[in-house]
Write a structure and sequence with these properties.
three-stranded antiparallel sheet; 7 helices; 11 strands; eight-stranded mixed sheet; alpha+beta; 36% helix; Aminopeptidase; 271 residues
């Protein structure tokens, strides 16, 4: 259908419609990329792809992603819950909203929204000024991957220790053509982040973490900018999800990121 079908429209209306179509297309590609990111080690349960972590019951490491264009039935949701419960995992989903058919059937089954996270993309990177004493490096050795895991576990409240399982998880990301960056301040591990395997012309910047003792030094901004530049260099468009807090305007906005939608985390609480 052309714009002529709606009758005369202003230039502003045309721009708004074009922006809506572009944003919708990017969100669809992001949802497909998020689904593909777990496809290699995911299980299928009806119209869901499900990632079960064999080593951790952390809800953020165990979640389902619904298929596009296949609204789940109540029976599909019951089967999904059974699959999570059989593995002693909390039933949880991640997907982009709005998705009314999915939202409705999950709400009817008792799922509640834990988080609505802004989804952001960047068209042109604004690089922050360099910081004396800060170095950033794409890492691959077990020693460095362990250091990355310690930084992320500490920053995200998972615990300051890390082991072979964490390194294996990092290696899985590398095998899928992701990249992991370690930030050092005067040679000491201080921050970390990664971008996921490229897909659908996109790559997600994720896992940006800074040890508490190194915060307020611009490390997170430097890590994000470094990863963003690497994604652009790979020929892809960077995107990220973030908490609905001041990081949207304080951290990511100054780098050129803009919000285009929301990512929902939906959980079925224990009875």
């Amino acid at each position: 259908m052309s714009l002529r079908s709606f009758g005369p429209v202003s230039e502003n209306s045309v721009a708004e419609l074009r922006h809506t179509w572009i944003t919708s297309g990017v969100l669809t590609r992001i949802q497909s990329a998020l689904r593909d990111a777990i496809r290699a080690d995911a299980e299928r349960v009806g119209p869901f792809l499900v990632r079960f972590d064999a080593h951790s019951d952390n809800p953020f490491m165990n979640y389902a992603v619904p298929d596009d264009g296949a609204p789940p039935t109540p029976a599909d949701v019951d089967a999904l819950v059974t699959a999570f419960r059989a593995r002693s995992r909390t039933p949880r989903l991640e997907y982009l909203r709005p998705s009314p058919p999915v939202d409705a059937v999950l709400a009817a089954a008792g799922f509640t929204v834990d988080q609505l996270l802004p989804v952001m993309v960047v068209d042109e990177l604004t690089t922050p000024p360099p910081r004396a004493g800060l170095t950033l490096e794409a890492v691959t050795s077990d020693e460095d991957l362990l250091a990355v895991s310690v930084v992320q576990n500490t920053a995200f409240g998972v615990g300051g220790t890390a082991g072979d399982e964490d390194v294996a998880r990092q290696r899985s990301l590398l095998r899928d053509n992701g990249v992991i960056v370690l930030a050092r301040w005067d040679g000491e591990p201080a921050g970390a982040g990664a971008y996921t395997a490229p897909g659908h012309g996109l790559s997600q910047v994720a896992g940006i973490a800074v040890l508490p003792s190194f915060r307020q030094r611009g490390i997170a901004s430097a890590v994000c900018a470094d990863l963003t530049a690497r994604v652009f260099d790979s020929g892809c468009t960077p995107f990220l999800e973030t908490e609905p807090d001041d990081k949207v305007t304080r951290l990511y906005g100054p780098l050129g990121y803009r919000t285009i939608g929301e990512s929902a985390s939906i959980t079925l609480k224990s009875a």
